[in-house]
């Protein structure tokens, strides 16, 4: 184990957005520029704090900070390792363009309750960083539930019947999952006397094989609900009634992506590859998520509502992440963990584009987008780049992670899962490329403006930035943020070399 550095930086990375959240409430609706200034300032400070952790972690060090010890082996503790750092860097980086985009979105559509909106957004980011830097299962659960609760007012933001129904379904699914996780964590502590994450797992040798398999099923069900694993996925498309920046939050760094993060934490840092091989359950887990990959892709084909199509695309891609990790090979884990980061940049770009289209034209169905590529060329160019990435086409970042996923399937001699990964890519082509073709080459609908007429720059610039990032990370995956080095270190830590 490498050197441990005791530092409060992880705590401050969590707290800075919480402080900003209450400053946003105090500022209120009368001083919009100041209120939104707190949002941007907190995003920049948080990014600086998280960015400063990259160098020591890549040097093999771990950053820890214990806030309070509750029981022997149980503490409210932050611990920054390579895997947690990856999620933290993604969340902190994407929060900057999301802050600017949200300002443009709510101002353009004259949304009500803007102070509540920005307050909840800030709380969501704090809890997402808390999830990333959680040093044990209890800390992870606490911040995950804060994230769940802070997201609910954003889901029901419009306060109409569909929003209330979507919010109710969201709470029922996610809070039930939280109760399942709490029970699983209690059993884990009773078996091991600790909850601290350990590379390669810590639960081996505690409990019978049957009990450990049941416990794994409880963890995967608890986090899998929030990750959209079928058949626990239904709340996610229903939550698309939320404002588009909220949807982007859910899919890129919020509840859904944190659910996948939790699944990976349990697989690699609670159970570990060696124990999963001994129990013989890795193929079952891979089979379940492979089913989700294919069925979610097929369901996406039938969605005319753009955000619902993107929601099923998210379910498809997040299942790919878990599939890669479940195969337990070096390349498959590299591809799965790298896709956790790459997918965030691609999917947030797609949701940004969907929001820009809606803000400018009030169109939100695929069948309404004919010819819009001529009216909104920057938006459609960004959409095309992100969609290419999700299809696994170079030079966009999705190609690299899906390449490693394919290598991992071959490495484990599981050709059926290679077929699943390739089928997923073909389904991505099937439900994204008609949108691109119709936007550029079909005759515009009568209400489409004959000249370039983009959304406000506060929305267009962020979506162009994230699209450019997708290309940069596809050509130079270590550029600036060292994503690939962080992923390789995370996998090496788990495999012990």
Which terms would index this structure?
mainly alpha, 3 strands, 21 helices, globular, 3-stranded mixed sheet, 497 residues, 73% helix
Write the layout of secondary structure elements.
Elements: E1 4-6, H1 9-27, H2 32-51, H3 54-58, E2 62-71, E3 74-80, H4 82-108, H5 114-132, H6 137-155, H7 161-192, H8 209-227, H9 235-238, H10 244-252, H11 255-271, H12 273-279, H13 282-301, H14 306-326, H15 330-361, H16 372-375, H17 377-390, H18 398-411, H19 415-441, H20 457-475, H21 483-495
Parallel strand pairs: 1-2
Antiparallel strand pairs: 2-3
Helix pairs in contact: 1-2, 1-5, 2-4, 4-5, 4-10, 4-15, 4-20, 4-21, 5-6, 6-7, 6-11, 7-8, 8-11, 10-15, 11-14, 13-14, 13-19, 14-15, 14-19, 15-17, 15-18, 15-20, 15-21, 17-19, 17-20, 18-19
Q: Your description of this structure?
A:
With about 500 residues, the protein is mostly helical. The chain has one domain (about 5-495). The chain is built from 21 helices and three strands. Strands 1-2-3 form a three-stranded mixed β-sheet. Helix 14 (about 305-325) packs antiparallel against helix 15 (about 330-360). The N and C termini lie close together (about 10 Å).
Tell me briefly what this model is.
With 497 residues, this protein is mainly alpha-helical. The chain contains 21 helices and 3 strands. A hairpin with a 2-residue loop joins strand 2 (62-71) and strand 3 (74-80).
Integer-rounded radius of gyration: 21 Å
N-to-C order of helices and strands? EHHHEEHHHHHHHHHHHHHHHHHH
Shape: globular
Number of domains: 1
- Helix and strand content put the structural class at mainly alpha
> Using DSSP, what is the number of strands?
3
Distance linking N and C termini: 11 Å
How are the strands ordered across the major sheet?
A: 1-2-3
Name the helicity range: over 70%
Low-confidence stretches: none
**Which sheet architecture does the biggest sheet show?**
3 strands, mixed
- Strand percentage: under 5%
Number of helices: 21
Q: Indicate the mean pLDDT.
A: 91
């Amino acid at each position: 184990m490498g050197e441990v550095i005791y530092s409060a930086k992880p705590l401050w990375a969590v707290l800075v957005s919480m402080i900003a959240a209450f400053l946003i409430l105090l500022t209120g609706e009368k001083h919009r520029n100041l209120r939104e200034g707190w949002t941007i300032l907190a995003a920049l400070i948080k990014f600086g704090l998280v960015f400063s952790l990259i160098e020591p972690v890549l040097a093999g060090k771990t950053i820890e900070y214990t806030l309070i010890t509750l029981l022997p082996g149980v503490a409210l503790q932050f611990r920054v390792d390579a895997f947690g750092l990856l999620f933290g860097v993604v969340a902190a980086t994407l929060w900057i363009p999301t802050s600017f985009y949200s300002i443009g979105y709510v101002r353009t559509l004259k949304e009500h309750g803007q102070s509540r909106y920005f307050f909840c957004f800030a709380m969501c980011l704090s809890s997402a960083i808390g999830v990333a830097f959680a040093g044990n299962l209890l800390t992870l659960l606490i911040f995950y539930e804060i994230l769940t609760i802070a997201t609910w007012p954003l889901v029901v933001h419009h306060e109409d019947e569909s929003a209330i129904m979507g919010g109710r379904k969201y709470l029922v699914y996610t809070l039930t999952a939280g109760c399942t996780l709490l029970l699983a964590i209690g059993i884990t502590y009773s078996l091991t006397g600790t909850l601290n994450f350990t590379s390669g797992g810590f639960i081996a040798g505690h409990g019978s094989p049957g009990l450990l398999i049941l416990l794994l099923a409880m963890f995967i069900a608890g986090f899998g609900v929030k990750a959209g694993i079928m058949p626990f996925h239904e709340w996610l498309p229903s939550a698309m009634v939320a404002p588009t920046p909220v949807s982007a939050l859910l899919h890129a760094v919020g509840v859904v992506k944190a659910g996948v993060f939790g699944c990976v934490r349990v697989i690699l840092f609670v159970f570990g590859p060696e124990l999963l091989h001994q129990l013989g359950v890795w193929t079952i887990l891979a089979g379940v998520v492979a089913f989700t990959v294919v069925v979610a892709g097929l369901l996406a084909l039938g969605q005319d509502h753009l955000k619902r199509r993107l929601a099923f695309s998210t379910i498809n891609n997040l299942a790919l992440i878990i599939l890669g990790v479940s195969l337990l090979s070096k390349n498959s884990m590299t591809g799965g963990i790298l896709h956790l980061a790459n997918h965030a940049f691609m999917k947030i770009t797609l949701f940004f584009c969907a929001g820009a289209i809606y803000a400018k034209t009030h169109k939100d169905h695929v069948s309404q987008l004919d010819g819009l590529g001529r009216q909104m060329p920057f938006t459609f160019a960004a959409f095309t780049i992100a969609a290419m990435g999700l299809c696994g086409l170079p030079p966009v970042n999705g190609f690299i992670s899906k390449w490693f996923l394919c290598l991992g399937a071959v490495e484990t001699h599981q050709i059926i899962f290679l077929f699943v990964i390739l089928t997923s890519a073909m389904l991505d082509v099937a439900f994204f490329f008609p949108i691109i073709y119709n936007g550029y080459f079909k005759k515009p609908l009568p209400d489409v403006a004959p000249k370039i007429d983009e959304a406000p720059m506060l929305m267009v610039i962020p979506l162009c930035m994230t699209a450019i990032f997708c290309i940069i990370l596809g050509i130079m995956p270590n550029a600036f943020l060292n994503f690939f080095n962080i992923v390789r270190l995370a996998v090496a830590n788990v495999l012990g070399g």
